Each structure stands twice: as C-alpha cells, then as structure tokens.
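Hi all, a correction to my earlier message: I attached the wrong file for YgiT-type zinc finger protein. Here's the right sequence:
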Amino acid sequence: MSYCCGASMVGTKGTLKHYRTQVHNVPLLFCPVCRRIEVHYKVENEYEILAEYAHGDGATEIDFQDYVMEDDDTIFENCVNRESEDAFEIVKRQIDISLDLLMVAKQMNDEKWQGELKRRLAVMSQRRSRLQHNKSGS
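and the right structure:
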C-alpha cells in the first residue's frame, strides 16, 4: 500500500504534463487528504523514459497505454481504494483506517502521530460532510 500523510493513496489513471507534452492514461496514486499526486511506483521508470522521448520528439500528446503494457488488474491491487469507486465510500474507508491508526498511536503514547491523525480525520470528516450534502442535495 502507498501512503501519504497517513492516508492510503487512491489508484487511478490520469494525464500528466511533462514540459509541453501531455501524457494520458498514466497510472497514478493520489492522496485524498492533501491531494498529492505521484506516478505509480510500478511504472515510474517507464513514465520518465516515455515522457523524455516524447518531449525530445516534440510530441504535444501521447497515450501511455500505447507504449507501455501494464496489467490493469494488478497495477492497483495494493491500493485500498480506486477512483472509480464511490467518493463517499472512499472517504468513509479512509476515516476507518485513520481511526484504527489513532488507536495504535494512543497505545504507543505517540502524541505527535495522534495530532497528525486528528488533523487528517478533520479534513476527511469535512470532505465526508460535503459529499453527504452533495448527495442529499442532488
């Protein structure tokens, strides 16, 4: 599993810009708390090579899937969530994981970690409230 600021990162595919070249369908991981995005570690080297070659060739757009074969079934198998899942369910699962970690932090008497987890829980609780409001307002 990939983590960022204590939350498990969500697996998805997206577009990244490398100088003037847009690379589509890149396997990505993003943090639902701080919104950090990174190329999935299993294809990071391939992305860097492809993006550099495409930029060197002057391509403005390329599709990662056209050049790099990855198994869609296994690339995100270590992710707790995928972007294709319901956003409300993703946030609920992230809250559950953080609450479990908070119990561990309390047992360890790690006040710094407890504070970080409480801040994370506050962010995710706000996001859950917005999603719930949007769901009921629709």
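Sorry for the mix-up. The domain at 3-82 is CATH 3.10.20 (Ubiquitin-like (UB roll)).
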